[in-house]
Amino acid sequence: EVQLVESGGGLVQPGRSLKLSCAASGFTFSNYYMAWVRQAPKKGLEWVATISTSGSRTYYPDSVKGRFTISRDNAKSSLYLQMNSLKSEDTATYYCARSDYSGIDYWGQGVMVTVSS
Amino acid sequence: DIQMTQSPSFLSASVGDRVTINCKASQNINKYLNWYQQKLGEAPKRLIYNTNNLQTGIPSRFSGSGSGTDYTLTISSLQPEDFATYFCLQHNSFPNTFGAGTKLELK
Questions:
Q1: Which uninterrupted H or E stretch holds A10?
Q2: Residue B36: pLDDT above 90?
Q3: CA distance to partner chain B, nearest, from residue A107 (Å)
Q4: Preferred mutation among B23, B46, B103 to probe A, highest tally of A CBs within 10 A
Q5: How far is CA A53 from CA A30, A89, B16, B64, B97, in A?
Q6: Which of A77, A107, B37, B88 is the S-S candidate for B23 at Cβ 3.0 to 4.6 Å?
Q7: Distances (CA, A) of B103 to B36, B37, B63, B84
Q8: For residue B42, what pLDDT is reported?
Q9: Which of B1, B49, B87 is opposite residue A45, by nearest beta carbon?
Q10: pLDDT for the residue numbered B43
Q11: pLDDT tens, A86-96?
């Protein structure tokens, strides 16, 4: 069974940093692209980042480019999202997601990040 | 960036009804369109991938169609467990973009 478990969320002040983690199990982690997607309160979903199987290629939307960094450790079956210079508009539930050739197929339960002073 | 316009935002229906939800892309997305279901407090679940392929384990009352810029999710006969929020995702190009969602409610 595919399982994706996020951690590392919480309350952080504007301008500070936070690192999210995602522990994957139930599949061969190194064979899949992985992604982060977020959902602000009462808002729609926004794709945040994608990383290739080896980690050599990463993709971001303009809204987070230069502030967020996605990375992975295939030996630990873990995905990460380093978030710097956080803004109030980054407040959201962040989902770890697995991506196959057909886009995102599995999602974690999500972790809440609140950016507020 | 490709914009995804999803309609309707809200849909009120009864058990047994046939319902359709639409997503329109701002440009051709070559059938790289997925549909997801999300229930309150749960992780989203993929229903359909690449326009019309049913995810393993999803009931056959769910189906997808479309091409070019216009795509549709159809639920042929609503069941009580289908009342949820549905959204589309285009993965033809980065940035991947989502529809705003359709909340399906019991009439």
A1: strand A10-12
A2: yes
A3: 6
A4: B46
A5: 6, 29, 43, 29, 21
A6: B88
A7: 12, 10, 18, 6
A8: 87
A9: B87
A10: 87
A11: 999 999 999 99
Residue tagged 């994608």 (tokens)? A50
What pLDDT sits at residue A50? 95
Return the SS3 of A74.
helix
Place of tokens 């290739």: A52
Who among A45, A47, A105 is closest to B46 (CB)?
A105
Contact A46 B42 (CB under 8 A): no
**What residues in chain A have per-residue pLDDT under 70?**
none
Please indicate if any CB of chain B lies within 8 Å of the CB of A91.
no
Residues in chain B whose Cβ is within 8 Å of chain A: 1, 32, 34, 36, 42-46, 49-50, 53, 55, 87, 89, 91, 94-101
